[in-house]
């Protein structure tokens, strides 16, 4: 039976009460691309703009001080949310992509050279792949891949050999395409034993499960606010203080300086050393509100809810397999995030997504920014349904009904 908490959560998200132009209820199954926003987050943005909009850090007047306090309080909330030892270890960025690029340009260019290697995986989103390809080309370092099996689980048999000479391991925590979860408890200590630094792309984990950067002992971790009930245009990089202290700035200009003369510049302390120019003040405050909201629900509850829902969906979809539905990834819901990729007979994933849209069911179709993985798996595209705290069994039922309709439209059995 559905948890009564579900209905209360759904009521927190105004968009979930809307219908499409055909009068169909919004069945939003694309949270891996971007999540919906609860009223509390939307209200925090309006409150900022209506009551204390001002630039931060330099203003002496009341609303500027209030904006500065709220902006820095939001950073502290994010630090607590991922259990960073120190608030200064949280750097605001636009998104996961910018956080990874910060590490690539700052840490990467300063620390890598010919003879060094970067180890990533075959599962990566382009955001955690293209920066390393470019860094390898610039520095002469080699780029290597941990292989994935047909279920998208990492194959660690040759990990020791792959780690030889590696200075950076950059990997996704949860695959946005197939939902598999990387065994960080195995990989991180072995990477450290080889003297490598570990960066985790947590775009699909921080929103969905408890993530503790100290327990995981990761060196860098990147995430996006818009996937965790926060606004677009705000994300963060966590980095261990000693690493961040030793790194040169990424972008330069105002705010990231301590003192500037015509000849030279000294840089600001952490975290501001990495925050050049006026920050995205409103959206950082909004992300703070999102973290408050998620914490009040409880990350343990959200993870358990998504496992329950994924198990329910995997089971419900099984009924369509005889008609040609192919679901990818492991059948064990506890071993995956709330992301299910599939294809249906020879219906192109985009056509499938269009039919589902007529029923109000929003899924993504395509390569999900993982073109090398699609090529390796031999999938031209997949349709992907992804879940979050506000997703219900009724949403999964609507997906199954819409797929049934698509089968009829395309004459599949
Ligand atoms: N990594 C993963 C695993 C993702 O799912 C995404 C978003 N699809 C990103 C990185 C990039 O996130 P953003 O576009 O917010 O930078």
TrEMBL record:
Function: Catalyzes the removal of elemental sulfur and selenium atoms from L-cysteine, L-cystine, L-selenocysteine, and L-selenocystine to produce L-alanine.
Family designation: Belongs to the class-V pyridoxal-phosphate-dependent aminotransferase family. Csd subfamily.
GO biological process: cysteine metabolic process
Keywords carried by this UniProt record: Pyridoxal phosphate, Transferase
Molecular functions (GO terms): cysteine desulfurase activity; pyridoxal phosphate binding
Taxonomic source organism: Vulcanimicrobium alpinum
Span of domain Aminotransferase class V: 27-399
Requisite cofactors: pyridoxal 5'-phosphate
Name recorded for this polypeptide: Cysteine desulfurase
NCBIfam families from the UniProt entry: sufS
EC number, as in UniProt: 2.8.1.7
Transmembrane segments: none
PANTHER family (UniProt xref): CYSTEINE DESULFURASE, CYSTEINE DESULFURASE 1, CHLOROPLASTIC
Keyword Transferase: yes
Catalytic activity: (sulfur carrier)-H + L-cysteine = (sulfur carrier)-SH + L-alanine
Pfam families: Aminotran_5
């Amino acid at each position: 039976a559905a948890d009564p908490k579900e209905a209360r959560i759904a009521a927190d998200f105004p968009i979930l009460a809307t219908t499409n132009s055909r009068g169909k209820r919004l069945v939003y199954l694309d949270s891996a691309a971007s999540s919906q926003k609860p009223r509390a987050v939307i209200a925090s943005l309006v409150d900022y703009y209506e009551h204390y909009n001002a630039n931060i850090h330099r203003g002496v007047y009341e609303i500027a001080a209030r904006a500065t306090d709220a902006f820095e309080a939001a950073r502290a909330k994010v630090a607590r949310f991922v259990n960073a030892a120190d608030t200064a270890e949280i750097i605001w960025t636009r998104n996961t992509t910018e956080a990874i690029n910060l590490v690539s340009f700052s840490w990467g260019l300063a620390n890598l050279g010919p003879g060094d290697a970067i180890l990533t995986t075959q599962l990566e989103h382009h955001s955690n792949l293209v920066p390393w390809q470019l860094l390898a080309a610039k520095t002469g370092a080699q780029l290597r891949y941990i292989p994935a099996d047909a279920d998208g689980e990492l194959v660690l048999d040759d990990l020791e050999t792959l780690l030889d000479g590696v200075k950076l391991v950059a990997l996704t925590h949860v695959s946005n395409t197939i939902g598999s979860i990387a065994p960080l408890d195995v990989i991180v200590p072995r990477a450290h034993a080889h003297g490598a630094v570990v960066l985790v792309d947590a775009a699909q984990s921080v929103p969905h499960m408890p993530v503790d950067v100290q327990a995981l002992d990761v060196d860098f971790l990147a995430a996006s606010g818009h996937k965790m009930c926060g606004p677009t245009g705000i994300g963060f990089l966590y980095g261990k203080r000693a690493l961040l202290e030793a790194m040169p700035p990424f972008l330069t200009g105002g705010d990231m300086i301590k003192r500037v003369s015509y000849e030279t510049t000294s840089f600001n302390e952490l975290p501001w050393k990495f925050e050049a120019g006026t920050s995205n003040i409103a959206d950082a405050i909004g992300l703070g509100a999102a973290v408050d909201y998620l914490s009040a629900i409880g990350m343990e509850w959200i993870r358990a809810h998504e496992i329950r829902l994924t198990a329910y969906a995997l089971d419900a979809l099984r009924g369509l397999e005889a008609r040609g539905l192919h679901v990818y990834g492991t059948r064990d819901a506890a071993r995956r995030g709330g992301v299910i990729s599939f294809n249906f007979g020879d219906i192109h994933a985009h056509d499938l997504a269009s039919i589902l849209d007529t029923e109000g069911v929003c899924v993504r179709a395509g390569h999900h920014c993982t073109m090398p993985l699609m090529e390796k798996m031999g999938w031209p595209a997949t349709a992907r349904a992804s879940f979050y705290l506000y997703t219900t069994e009724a949403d999964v039922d609507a997906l199954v009904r819409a797929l049934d309709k698509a089968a009829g439209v395309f004459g599949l059995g």
